[in-house]
Amino acid sequence: EVQLVQSGAEVKKPGESLKISCKATGYSFMFYWIAWVRQMPGKGLEWMGIIYPSDSDTRYSPSFQGQVTISADKSISTAYLQWSSLKASDTAMYYCVRHEADTGSDYWGQGTLVTVSS
Amino acid sequence: DIQMTQSPSTLSASVGDRVTITCRASHSINNWLAWYQQKPGKAPNLLIYKASILQSGVPSRFSGSGSGTQFTLTISSLQPDDFATYYCQQYDSYSLLTFGGGTKVEIK
User: Fold this and answer.
1) Which residues of chain B lie closer than 8 angstroms to A106, CB-CB?
2) CB distance from A109 to chain B under 8 Å?
3) Count of alpha carbons within 13 Å of B36, Cβ hemisphere only?
4) Tell me, what DSSP letter sits at residue B57?
5) Which pLDDT score is estimated for B49?
6) pLDDT digits over B44-96, tens only?
7) Contact state of B91 with A104 under an 8 Å Cβ cutoff
8) Cα B62 from Cα B19, distance rounded (Å)
9) Which class for B4: exposed (0-12), middle (13-18), buried (19 or more C-beta within 10 A)?
Protein backbone atom coordinates (compact mmCIF):
# COMPACT_ATOMS: atom_id res chain seq x y z
CA GLU A 1 0.00 0.00 0.00
CA VAL A 2 1.39 3.38 -1.00
CA GLN A 3 1.68 5.76 1.93
CA LEU A 4 3.19 9.20 2.43
CA VAL A 5 3.59 9.98 6.12
CA GLN A 6 4.51 13.54 6.99
CA SER A 7 6.17 14.90 10.10
CA GLY A 8 4.10 16.52 12.81
CA ALA A 9 2.78 20.03 13.27
CA GLU A 10 5.29 22.78 13.96
CA VAL A 11 5.06 26.09 15.78
CA LYS A 12 7.93 28.45 15.01
CA LYS A 13 8.91 32.09 15.40
CA PRO A 14 9.63 34.42 12.48
CA GLY A 15 13.23 34.11 11.35
CA GLU A 16 13.62 30.51 12.52
CA SER A 17 14.54 27.67 10.19
CA LEU A 18 12.50 24.54 9.61
CA LYS A 19 12.68 21.26 7.72
CA ILE A 20 9.60 19.06 7.39
CA SER A 21 9.62 15.53 6.05
CA CYS A 22 7.58 13.09 4.00
CA LYS A 23 8.35 9.39 4.36
CA ALA A 24 7.25 7.20 1.44
CA THR A 25 6.45 3.51 1.68
CA GLY A 26 4.85 0.90 -0.55
CA TYR A 27 6.49 1.83 -3.86
CA SER A 28 9.87 2.56 -5.46
CA PHE A 29 10.55 6.01 -4.07
CA MET A 30 13.36 6.78 -6.52
CA PHE A 31 11.19 6.55 -9.63
CA TYR A 32 8.23 8.80 -8.88
CA TRP A 33 8.20 12.58 -8.60
CA ILE A 34 7.32 14.06 -5.20
CA ALA A 35 5.72 17.50 -5.09
CA TRP A 36 4.93 19.90 -2.29
CA VAL A 37 1.66 21.83 -2.14
CA ARG A 38 0.78 24.73 0.15
CA GLN A 39 -2.67 25.53 1.45
CA MET A 40 -2.97 28.72 3.45
CA PRO A 41 -5.84 28.92 5.96
CA GLY A 42 -9.17 28.99 4.12
CA LYS A 43 -7.48 29.19 0.71
CA GLY A 44 -6.84 27.01 -2.32
CA LEU A 45 -4.01 24.70 -3.31
CA GLU A 46 -0.69 26.15 -4.50
CA TRP A 47 1.92 24.00 -6.19
CA MET A 48 5.36 24.79 -4.77
CA GLY A 49 7.78 22.49 -6.55
CA ILE A 50 8.74 18.95 -7.38
CA ILE A 51 11.70 16.58 -7.12
CA TYR A 52 12.65 13.35 -8.85
CA PRO A 53 14.53 11.40 -6.18
CA SER A 54 16.48 9.24 -8.61
CA ASP A 55 18.61 12.13 -9.88
CA SER A 56 17.41 14.98 -7.59
CA ASP A 57 16.06 16.94 -10.58
CA THR A 58 14.15 19.72 -8.81
CA ARG A 59 11.83 22.37 -10.21
CA TYR A 60 10.20 25.24 -8.36
CA SER A 61 7.18 27.40 -8.97
CA PRO A 62 8.39 30.96 -9.58
CA SER A 63 6.33 31.99 -6.54
CA PHE A 64 8.44 29.77 -4.28
CA GLN A 65 11.85 29.81 -5.99
CA GLY A 66 14.42 31.04 -3.48
CA GLN A 67 11.92 30.86 -0.61
CA VAL A 68 12.12 27.13 0.11
CA THR A 69 14.37 24.17 -0.65
CA ILE A 70 13.10 20.77 -1.72
CA SER A 71 15.33 17.75 -1.27
CA ALA A 72 15.16 13.99 -0.99
CA ASP A 73 17.16 11.20 0.66
CA LYS A 74 16.86 8.06 -1.44
CA SER A 75 18.42 5.88 1.25
CA ILE A 76 15.46 6.44 3.58
CA SER A 77 12.74 7.17 0.98
CA THR A 78 12.09 10.60 2.43
CA ALA A 79 11.48 13.98 0.86
CA TYR A 80 11.95 17.30 2.60
CA LEU A 81 10.77 20.87 2.45
CA GLN A 82 12.83 23.45 4.26
CA TRP A 83 12.93 27.13 5.07
CA SER A 84 15.98 29.08 6.23
CA SER A 85 14.04 32.01 7.64
CA LEU A 86 10.32 31.64 8.26
CA LYS A 87 7.81 34.46 7.94
CA ALA A 88 4.32 34.74 9.41
CA SER A 89 2.99 34.38 5.86
CA ASP A 90 4.44 30.83 5.74
CA THR A 91 1.68 29.74 8.11
CA ALA A 92 -0.14 27.03 6.19
CA MET A 93 -0.79 23.35 5.74
CA TYR A 94 1.84 21.68 3.56
CA TYR A 95 1.17 18.48 1.66
CA CYS A 96 3.62 16.17 -0.03
CA VAL A 97 2.23 14.38 -3.04
CA ARG A 98 3.41 11.54 -5.22
CA HIS A 99 3.17 12.60 -8.84
CA GLU A 100 2.96 10.10 -11.66
CA ALA A 101 3.33 11.03 -15.31
CA ASP A 102 0.02 9.52 -16.39
CA THR A 103 -2.22 9.83 -13.36
CA GLY A 104 -1.10 13.08 -11.82
CA SER A 105 -0.93 13.56 -8.07
CA ASP A 106 -2.26 10.18 -7.03
CA TYR A 107 -1.19 9.87 -3.38
CA TRP A 108 -1.13 12.64 -0.79
CA GLY A 109 0.42 12.87 2.63
CA GLN A 110 -1.78 13.78 5.58
CA GLY A 111 -0.35 17.30 5.69
CA THR A 112 1.95 19.17 8.07
CA LEU A 113 0.58 22.32 9.70
CA VAL A 114 3.22 25.00 10.08
CA THR A 115 2.37 27.95 12.29
CA VAL A 116 4.74 30.93 12.39
CA SER A 117 3.98 33.43 15.10
CA SER A 118 5.91 35.68 17.42
CA ASP B 1 3.25 29.82 -17.44
CA ILE B 2 -0.08 28.07 -17.80
CA GLN B 3 -2.95 29.63 -15.84
CA MET B 4 -5.97 27.56 -14.82
CA THR B 5 -9.31 29.35 -14.44
CA GLN B 6 -11.98 27.37 -12.64
CA SER B 7 -15.67 28.30 -12.45
CA PRO B 8 -17.84 28.80 -10.61
CA SER B 9 -15.98 29.48 -7.36
CA THR B 10 -19.07 28.47 -5.36
CA LEU B 11 -22.00 26.35 -6.39
CA SER B 12 -25.20 25.72 -4.41
CA ALA B 13 -27.00 22.51 -5.29
CA SER B 14 -29.38 19.91 -3.91
CA VAL B 15 -29.00 16.18 -3.50
CA GLY B 16 -29.81 14.55 -6.83
CA ASP B 17 -28.80 17.57 -8.93
CA ARG B 18 -26.51 17.30 -11.91
CA VAL B 19 -23.48 19.51 -11.28
CA THR B 20 -20.90 20.78 -13.76
CA ILE B 21 -17.62 22.53 -12.96
CA THR B 22 -15.46 24.08 -15.66
CA CYS B 23 -11.72 24.54 -15.88
CA ARG B 24 -10.03 26.56 -18.63
CA ALA B 25 -6.31 26.54 -19.39
CA SER B 26 -4.50 29.58 -20.80
CA HIS B 27 -2.65 27.31 -23.24
CA SER B 28 -3.32 23.87 -24.60
CA ILE B 29 -2.49 21.13 -22.09
CA ASN B 30 -3.65 18.27 -24.30
CA ASN B 31 -5.36 15.89 -21.85
CA TRP B 32 -3.03 16.44 -18.90
CA LEU B 33 -5.75 17.53 -16.51
CA ALA B 34 -6.71 16.07 -13.14
CA TRP B 35 -9.60 16.73 -10.77
CA TYR B 36 -9.40 16.47 -6.99
CA GLN B 37 -11.95 16.54 -4.20
CA GLN B 38 -11.08 18.02 -0.83
CA LYS B 39 -13.18 17.82 2.30
CA PRO B 40 -12.58 20.11 5.30
CA GLY B 41 -9.54 19.11 7.31
CA LYS B 42 -8.50 16.41 4.83
CA ALA B 43 -5.95 16.06 2.08
CA PRO B 44 -7.26 16.24 -1.49
CA ASN B 45 -8.25 13.03 -3.22
CA LEU B 46 -7.69 12.27 -6.90
CA LEU B 47 -10.96 11.75 -8.78
CA ILE B 48 -10.09 11.92 -12.48
CA TYR B 49 -6.85 11.99 -14.44
CA LYS B 50 -5.97 12.53 -18.08
CA ALA B 51 -9.13 14.63 -18.29
CA SER B 52 -11.59 11.73 -18.36
CA ILE B 53 -10.21 8.60 -16.67
CA LEU B 54 -11.85 7.74 -13.38
CA GLN B 55 -9.41 6.91 -10.59
CA SER B 56 -9.92 3.46 -9.10
CA GLY B 57 -12.53 3.47 -6.35
CA VAL B 58 -14.19 6.73 -7.39
CA PRO B 59 -17.97 6.45 -7.90
CA SER B 60 -19.16 6.41 -11.50
CA ARG B 61 -21.40 9.46 -10.95
CA PHE B 62 -18.19 11.48 -11.42
CA SER B 63 -17.04 12.06 -14.98
CA GLY B 64 -14.61 14.32 -16.77
CA SER B 65 -14.41 15.58 -20.31
CA GLY B 66 -12.58 18.05 -22.51
CA SER B 67 -9.25 18.51 -24.21
CA GLY B 68 -6.92 21.31 -25.21
CA THR B 69 -7.95 24.25 -23.04
CA GLN B 70 -11.52 23.52 -21.89
CA PHE B 71 -12.45 20.84 -19.38
CA THR B 72 -15.44 19.88 -17.25
CA LEU B 73 -16.12 17.79 -14.19
CA THR B 74 -19.67 16.47 -13.94
CA ILE B 75 -21.42 14.86 -11.00
CA SER B 76 -24.45 13.17 -12.49
CA SER B 77 -26.51 12.97 -9.30
CA LEU B 78 -25.13 14.86 -6.31
CA GLN B 79 -24.91 12.81 -3.12
CA PRO B 80 -24.52 14.06 0.48
CA ASP B 81 -20.90 12.86 0.50
CA ASP B 82 -20.09 15.07 -2.50
CA PHE B 83 -20.38 18.40 -0.72
CA ALA B 84 -16.74 19.46 -0.82
CA THR B 85 -14.30 21.66 -2.71
CA TYR B 86 -13.08 20.57 -6.12
CA TYR B 87 -9.83 21.54 -7.83
CA CYS B 88 -8.49 21.03 -11.31
CA GLN B 89 -4.74 20.76 -11.98
CA GLN B 90 -2.78 20.78 -15.21
CA TYR B 91 0.26 18.55 -15.39
CA ASP B 92 1.40 19.18 -18.92
CA SER B 93 4.60 20.85 -17.81
CA TYR B 94 6.65 19.62 -14.86
CA SER B 95 8.11 23.07 -14.49
CA LEU B 96 4.82 24.34 -13.06
CA LEU B 97 1.84 22.13 -12.27
CA THR B 98 -0.87 24.70 -11.64
CA PHE B 99 -4.13 24.27 -9.76
CA GLY B 100 -7.37 26.02 -10.48
CA GLY B 101 -8.79 28.27 -7.79
CA GLY B 102 -11.29 25.68 -6.55
CA THR B 103 -15.07 25.24 -6.58
CA LYS B 104 -16.92 24.84 -3.32
CA VAL B 105 -20.08 22.77 -3.71
CA GLU B 106 -22.55 23.74 -1.00
CA ILE B 107 -25.94 22.48 0.05
CA LYS B 108 -28.79 24.57 -1.39
Assistant:
1) 46, 49, 55
2) yes
3) 26
4) T
5) 97
6) 999 999 999 999 999 999 999 999 999 999 999 999 999 999 999 999 887 78
7) yes
8) 10
9) buried
